[in-house]
Amino acid sequence: MRDNGSLRGRLLGNLALLLVVLMLASGLSAYWNGREAADTAYDRTLLASARTIAAGLSQRDGTLSADVPYVALDTFAYDSAGRIYYQVLDIHQRLISGYENLPPPPPGTPRTDDYPALARFYNATYQGQDVRVVSLLKPVSEPNMNGMAEIRVAETEEARVRMARGLMADTLLRLGMLALGALMMVWFAVSAALRPLERLRTAVEERQPDDLRSLPVVQVQRELGPLVHALNHFTERLRGQFERQAQFIADAAHELRTPLAALKARLELGLRSQEPEQWRQTLEAATQGTDRLTHLANQLLSLARVENGARAIAEGGAQRLDLCQLTRELGMAMAPLAHARGVALALEAEAPVWLKGEPTLLNELLSNLVDNALAHTPKGGNVILRVMAPAMLEVEDDGPGIPESDRERVFERFYRRSAQGTGLGLAIVGEICRAHLAQISLHDGEKGGLRVRVSFIAD
């Protein structure tokens, strides 16, 4: 049997996979949200530094100068997380203070709604490092100088990245602890939920092979109830099957014991006799007894085949068959036997009549019905086979018939109305009818004999 793994393991594995995906998505979201928060916070600091520098601009003798206070750069200048650079340009874009070659705003850099219209933020590269830059325009209006001075303040992005990663790590740590707790809770919850199933397995394993009692339903959860009911239904059918087999074996042993005992007694009597004629009579009787035993054994084998065929039908093994064709072939096969007994065998059929069935079982049904009719029809009588739409079979004979009081019992195993026969022919027919969901009934024939009618489900 293929091992599909542990239910507990599959649940935990699926949950762990879901949690990992959730953690990755949440981690990425936390990183980008952290980066956005870091950009907002550090952009404000950059703008504050630029404004502080702009406040220190002064004009003297037509020359613009910048007095950059230490506080403007104190927050960033030697921060281990990054560095800050600045640049002050006069109205003619000439450097008057700060670092050279600080990247200017790219053309078309939009202005943000969060800050004054004179400030623009952009990303650039300076001295091989990624930097975030703010460009602030400072109006200069003096009698001999009129225009816009520009202050640029740039900061490396290490601090922003560190802040974003810190937020992401904190989020992943919290989610990891939550996932671990969830997995532990699911482990204990699944273990508790599977405990009744383990008890059910133990109860089944500890039973003896012949213990087919129903399992108690009151000790299981609602979800396990259908499983327990299905198991109980299966054990009930199995118990019924075993009981029928045991009864069948007991009946077969009983039916075989009597003719075997009679055969043994006749042979012993012949052995004690000194007369050749007595020996001949003994051998004839032994031959007849052997024939009856052979017929009984064949009937028992037929009954076993019926049970196997019934299981095949239940498992979807039925075929689409023409009842007329089956009846015609069986009639041709039984014609020599009917002729030997002096009985006319006739067929009245409408072609074709379709049904779903197992061909071996249907041949067994026809054979038993015709054999039973031939056995009870006197010499010179008639046996008629009729096939009618939608799916009906009739076998009628000119024999003595069966009284209405016995018509229900003739389908019981080993029930016989006389010493002749095995009492299994019509029992086999009844079993085959049940396997095909067909209805069988007994009626009086037109000439006082018996008419057996079998109604199948048409296809």
TrEMBL record:
It catalyses: ATP + protein L-histidine = ADP + protein N-phospho-L-histidine. Residues 191-243 form the HAMP domain. PROSITE patterns: HAMP, HIS_KIN. The keyword Zinc does not apply. SMART domains: HAMP, HATPase_c, HisKA. Keywords: Kinase, Membrane, Phosphoprotein, Transferase, Transmembrane, Transmembrane helix, Two-component regulatory system. It comes from the Bacteria. Gene3D superfamilies: 1.10.287.130, 6.10.340.10, Histidine kinase-like ATPase, C-terminal domain. CDD domains: HAMP, HisKA. GO terms for molecular function: phosphorelay sensor kinase activity. The chain crosses the membrane at residues 12-32, 172-194. Residues 251-459 form the Histidine kinase domain. It is an enzyme of class 2 (transferase). It is found in: Membrane. InterPro entries: 2CSK_N, HAMP_dom, HATPase_C_sf, HATPase_dom, His_kinase_dom, HisK_dim/P_dom, HisK_dim/P_sf, Sig_transdc_His_kin-like_C. Its EC number is 2.7.13.3. GO terms for cellular component: plasma membrane. This is histidine kinase. It comes from Pseudomonas guariconensis.
